[in-house]
Amino acid sequence: MIPALMPTYNRADLAFERGEGAWLYTADGRRFLDFGSGIATASVGHANKHLADAIAAQVHKVMHVSNLYRIPQAELLAQRLVDATFADSVFFCNSGAEANEGMVKMIRRAAYETGHPDRYRMITFEGAFHGRTLGMLAATGNEKYLKGFGPRVDGFDQVPFNNLNAVRDAIGPHTAGIMVEAVQGEGGIRRGSIDFLRGLRGTCDEFGLALGLDEVQCGMGRTGKLFAFEWAGIVPDVVTTAKGLGGGFPIGAILAREHMAKYLVAGTHGTTFGGNPLACTAANAVLDILLAPGFLDEVVRKGEVLAAALADLVADFPAVFEEARGIGLIRGLKCAVPAGDVQAAFIAEGLLSVTAGENVVRLVPPLVITDADIAEAMARMYRGAARCLPSAGKDAAQ
Fold first, then answer.
1. Hey, what domains does the chain have and what are their CATH numbers?
2. H/E element holding 307?
3. Orientation of helix 295-316 relative to helix 371-388, angle to 10°
4. 183-217 per-position pLDDT tens digit
5. Strand ranges across the sheet with 31-34
6. What is the DSSP pairing of strand 31-34 with strand 23-26?
7. Whether 143 contacts 208, CB under 8 Å
8. Are 329 and 299 in contact (CB under 8 A)?
9. CA of 11: how far to CAs of 7, 22, 281, 355, in Å?
10. What pTM, to 2 d.p., does this model score?
11. Residue 148 near residue 134 (C-beta atoms within 8 A)
């Protein structure tokens, strides 16, 4: 018999009662160091006092009114994001997939309004993950996710990641824009090279295309800058974000320059819940933390500490790991054994992680982790790696 909660996930047999910083606790008292962050979402840690107090105060005022009325919390959040980024205007929604759908709509609409109604196709990349809606499944292009859901939504042309020649070859008369992750999370913590991202900007300028960055996972400070594309020194036309923006509270956003945003006029796009007072209060509290002086510099520093430790781990366990990769606090271990086995071994040692493409274990801790947290995580990873050595199974059998 099917359970009351639809079995759409292969859930670990863990239920957490509370959290504190980078730690999670089960009802029976077990303690886990969280290097998964709810899939890169608990950006300011668990039970963050500033975030929790802001949400609690807003709950006692008003949670939702709809976008039929002004929402001061959304106006403040939009202005802060505009002031801190390339963007001129912001649209709020509920999730990363919804933000990405909105980005594609915006790019298509801008093409239509500027005399190119035949331009509607988007170039996307192998290894991408843009969400689970029908449209974003087509943009993602993963056959495993598409199977059984009918004809693929038209309008997306996939090419190899980090291959500018393939991008240029794919441009046709119906191409409206390019959608790319600066760091592919689900795809295996694969970075778009600086030259590649700069080349995409130049190619879009050359052909009159829009450049859209999906920063749902790698944005909001995770790389040590507010958005990962900033490392390339480029200016995109549209950027999406979600996950870390609310620190665990559902909210997504589309940030855009005026020449794109101005075509989404009243009636062209909408959302019931998006940008409500409670969600925007949460995101404003998160921004208080992320934009505080020195915070992002600390993410860079802690990312470098973690990177050095992971490099040592790979060198010490060549039978288990092939490579450490990533930037800031979005890191990955490419495994020489099944990544699921490594993830299970880490759980056995009290460390939570997330698997990804290319047989990678993803490490995306809260941005507020301490040096002591990193040291403890590495100790647990070393013990977990020892469990995965070929000899470990033989010793256990004896």
1. 50-62+69-290 (3.40.640.10), 296-336+345-359+378-387 (no CATH)
2. helix 295-316
3. 20
4. 999 999 999 999 999 999 999 999 999 999 999 99
5. 16-20, 23-26, 31-34, 351-352
6. antiparallel
7. no
8. yes
9. 9, 20, 30, 13
10. 0.95
11. no
